[in-house]
Structures are given as structure tokens and as C-alpha cells.
């Protein structure tokens, strides 16, 4: 009996201490508006369901936030989030809150302290070292690789020409994997001809489990997740992907040590890292390379596939792209150069409008490290901040009554001059924005230009979406293609 009494009083003392430590959070929650919450559960019920239902719930909740003035508090279990659709607040958050939110911990199991998920102190040091290897001049040296792999893609798509609709994303993502592997580690993987490899299956498996865990509350605590079969499956597949990258790094470091790598000419990103005056450990190299290959592939492949879907259902826009490409290339099928890409003004607007409508990273999560003064109040340290980019990019308050429609001319210079810098943030914003944004834009232009010079695209309007970390159409990226006349 005495033991139970002691346990009871210890629990009471812990709860009192817990409440006292979190007093600033409770105080700010009394100031912030709350929408759609339930007693005890808070907003947890909005984050239950399958990928399609979950995205629908998030959109509904965000609309409630929008109608309440564009800001609100969201409680998910014991975690408090500040959600804002106000570009001024978003700018302050992204410029001042550089620590990633706790939800990114599931990716850290795989990517460790790679640049995408690294703690702030480490991120600051490593970003400074990595930034020069993403200089525009270096990325432009890979343009032949972009064009060569896009040409392989066009050849493989011949098997679908004149046939019923098919999921083009599978082709695009294989092309992007070949591009990313060759630019990141100098390896010609030939994924386009061999898409079903053990390594790619392992990658896909890990992504699926992380996505499931991110949106299923009962799988989030490590103690519960480790009791499931998914923990063992995830660990085995992560180990498999790590082994692959470790072997590549080991081989490259041995070549570097023996002086076997090229002294002149184009170098892959791993070679450039080895040439930097910074002593990365093998583990750190693997974390950065894995982060580059994962982030560089999935996001750009999705934007390319969405752009084709949109152009396939908007013949007028597709015709304008093709006319622009004819003015640049004539009848030539040559690989796009830097000068060619710089002339693709309309195609660039199409890409930007695609990223606005189908922001593939729908939510950016950050955490306040210290007090953050916003317009009407101050957030205490320790509050999660959720920037709902997918909702902001479709906000009628920011983009007008036709915010849901496809209009590339929205990004004409004269239509963009007064736009808030945080109204459109497909590559995030501030010092922790996407380090590969120039790479992404150049590769998307190059691949899209190569496809559209060869094929006419037809598709249906996108009606149903789902969230699996990134944003996907429920039926897939379904298109039909026909060869263009020579």
C-alpha cells in the first residue's frame, strides 16, 4: 500500500512540474483562436484516416483557420502548433525559426543529420560547406546529363504512344533517379531500363513506412512502433540503402586518395565534397548524399508529372509551350543548353503555376527556439509552427477568386511585382530554403522541354489527391501520348 501511495504522489508531483514547465504554452493558447477542436482530444481527430481522407481533413481545418483570420492554435496530443496563412507571419517564422519540427524525427531515422533534417547548429556549419557545390556554374555542367537521360526517357515512352492512358510518373521518377545518381555520386545506374532493383524497392518501402507513421498517431511513439513488424522491416531496408551509399563512398574515397579522380572537368557532387577543405566523416557523407538523392528525385519528378497533367488538360497552354520550344530549337532534337533554358519563359511560368497548385511538400514545420514577436502577440520558445503551403498557394485572399484555376500568366513580371515574397514558397524561404532550387528548375525545364518536343499529351482534370509525406493524385499521373509530327 505504501508503494502505491508513493507512486501516486510521485505522479502528482511530476504532473504539477510538467504543467509548470509548459505554462507559457498554455498561456499563449488562451490568446490564440482555436477552431475545430474537441475537449481532451484537441485537434487530433483531424489527423486520423487514410491518405486521401487525411488531406481532405487538413484542407477543411485550414479553411476554418482561414475564415477565423488566418491564424489559429492546433493541439495534437501534448504538442501545440501555431498555424498561420499570413505571409508576414510566415516570413518571420521561416527567417527566425530554423529548427525543424519534431515531426521530422521520422526522417532522421533514415537521413540522420543530413542537411534537410539536421539540427540548427550542425546545419549552419554544413550548409556553408555544401553551398558552393550547388553554385549555378557547377549545376550547369550537368546539363548534358539532364538532356541525355531525358532523351532515354523519350525513347522509352515510345511504347506508350497511341495507347490508352498510363501512369507517366513511373517513367519520370526513373529518369530523375538516373539524373540524380549520376550528378550526386557519378554512378550510371540505368534505372530507366532496370526500374525494379532491390535498392529502389528498399527506398520505396522506407518512404511508405515513414509516411504511415507520420500520420498514424499510435505509431508515433517509438515504444509502440518498435513493437510492430514495421520497425523490423524499416530497419532492414534502411540498412540496405545505407550499405549501398557506404560502398559508393568507400570506393570514391579510395579513388580520391590514389589520385584517380579527374583533376579537370565535370565532377559529381560527392567528388566536390571530398575536395572541400572539411573533414566529413563517412557517415556524414552518406547522410548528405542520401538527402540529396531523395530530395532531388521525388520532388522534381512530381512537379514534372503534374505539369504534364495540367498541360494535357489545357491544350492552349500546351500549344504555347510547343510554339516557344519551336522558336528555340526549330526542328532540331539537340540537348537543351543553358542559353536554351534561359529562353523558356512560358515553360518556366507553367512550372511555377504547377508548383503553386500542386505544392508537393504541403506543410513546412518549424519550432521556435526563443520568443518570436509576431504582429499581435509573442510566441514562447518550444511552439511548433506549421506553414500550410498547399493552402496558402490556393488562398483566394492571396491569389484572387480564380486561385484554383491554372493560369501560367499569373507569374508574368507585371503580375508578380507586388506579390508578397512568402505568398509563393515552393522551395521554402529564408536561409534554410532548398539548397537545390536552381538544380530543380533547370532539370524540370530540360526534361519537360524534351518530352513536349516529342509528344502531345492528353489527360483528365485532377480531382482527387492524397498525402503521403508528398502530394499525389489518387489515380496516379494518368496521361495518354501521341507522337508529334516531325
Give a written overview of the molecule:
The structure is a single chain. The chain has 486 residues and is of the alpha+beta class. It has one domain (23-483): Cytochrome P450 (Cytochrome p450, Orthogonal Bundle), CATH 1.10.630. It is 54% helix and 10% strand. A hairpin with a 4-residue loop joins strand 6 and strand 7 (378-379). The longest helix is centred in the middle third of the chain and has 31 residues, at 282-312. The mean pLDDT is 89. It is a peripheral membrane protein. Its cofactor is heme.
Summarize the structure.
The protein has 486 residues and is of the alpha+beta class. It is built from 21 helices and twelve strands. Pfam families: p450.
Number of strands: 12
Question: Which whole number gives the mean pLDDT?
Answer: 89
N-to-C CA distance: 89 Å
Enumerate how many helices there are, as a single number.
21
- Can you tell me the number of structural domains? 1
Q: Profile the largest sheet.
A: 5 strands, mixed
Uncertain regions: pLDDT < 50 for 5+ in a row? none
Helix content: 40-55%
Rg, rounded, reads: 24 Å
Q: What is the CATH fold-level name?
A: Cytochrome p450
User: Strand portion, in percent?
Assistant: 5-15%
| Helical/strand content category | alpha+beta
Spell out the CATH superfamily: Cytochrome P450
The CATH C-level name is Mainly Alpha
**Could you give the order of strands across the largest sheet?**
1-2-8-5-3
Q: What gross morphology would you assign?
A: globular
| CATH architecture tag | Orthogonal Bundle
GO molecular function, one term: iron ion binding
InterPro entries: Cyt_P450, Cyt_P450_CS, Cyt_P450_E_grp-I, Cyt_P450_sf, Cytochrome_P450_Monoox
GO cellular component, one term: endoplasmic reticulum membrane
Protein name: Cytochrome P450
